[in-house]
Design a protein that fits this description.
The chain has 13 helices and no strands. The N and C termini lie far apart (63 Å). α6 packs across α7, α8 packs antiparallel against α9 and α12 packs antiparallel against α13.
Length: 240
């Protein structure tokens, strides 16, 4: 029995025991009120204290905070994929060399689907950062051929956006992003795609549109490498 199943069973047993204790002491209305209150308090506890590590990065857009969580989590125990998760944080913190060093130890073909697309995400970010079009296209093709399930199709859609930049096809990228951005459920994806959109406006000489995005995104002060990218891009836009 794995730890998740054991934890679930313990929670069920606690609820059953609580019900019988309350049933012996109080009437049905009070029992219902107490049980509902217990469940709501537990849900609140989960939301506040048991937030998944990746939500710190993907929803709260806090790469340093995500790395700090990982450091605490894995300081006293090893995990086969901990280096992959650290690389995930490093790449969104702008530490590309550290990320590259860590992912090289993994064989992407042996990873489960979720970790596989984390690996591709990291590798593609590094290739794009290095402006390596051939490497990026090769990685993207392998990612595409890996037949992602419906759950991970969005990863493929997001990874397609930088191809337009590498091919200097800015007008089509703008149209593509206008359709893709509203579909995003994770904030860090929106930040990333908004950067590509601002870059497309800059490269396509639509400066006012580019400035509107950089000014708005800088006010958000998200703790991702894209904040620095927006700062650099805004300086370039203001020169023109």
């Amino acid at each position: 029995m794995n730890k998740l199943s054991l934890s679930f069973m313990v929670k069920v047993i606690v609820i059953i025991l609580l019900y019988y204790i309350l049933d012996a002491l109080f009437d049905d209305t009070i029992i219902i009120i107490v049980l509902v209150s217990f469940i709501l308090l537990y849900i609140l506890y989960i939301l506040i204290f048991k937030t998944r590590d990746n939500q710190k990065l993907e929803i709260m857009c806090d790469a340093p905070g995500y790395l700090s969580l990982l450091t605490k989590k894995y300081s006293k125990r090893n995990n086969t994929y901990s280096d992959l998760y650290f690389a995930y944080g490093y790449v969104y913190n702008g530490e590309y060399d550290k990320a590259l060093e860590l992912i090289q130890k993994y064989d992407v073909t042996k990873l489960n689907e979720e970790n596989r697309y984390i690996w591709y995400n990291i590798s593609l970010k590094i290739a794009f950062h290095n402006n390596d079009r051939n490497l990026y296209m090769g990685l993207y093709q392998k990612m595409k051929e890996s037949s992602p399930s419906k759950k991970f199709m969005n990863e493929l859609d997001v990874a397609k956006a930088p191809i337009y930049i590498l091919e200097e096809n800015y007008e089509d990228l703008i149209a593509y992003l206008m359709d893709l951005i509203p579909k995003q459920l994770k904030r860090f994806r929106i930040v990333e795609l908004e950067y590509y959109l601002a870059l497309a406006y800059y490269k396509g000489n639509w400066k006012e549109d580019g400035l509107a995005i950089t000014e708005f995104m800088l006010k958000k002060n998200y703790q991702l490498i894209y904040h620095a990218f927006f700062e650099e891009l805004q300086k370039e836009l203001e020169k023109e």
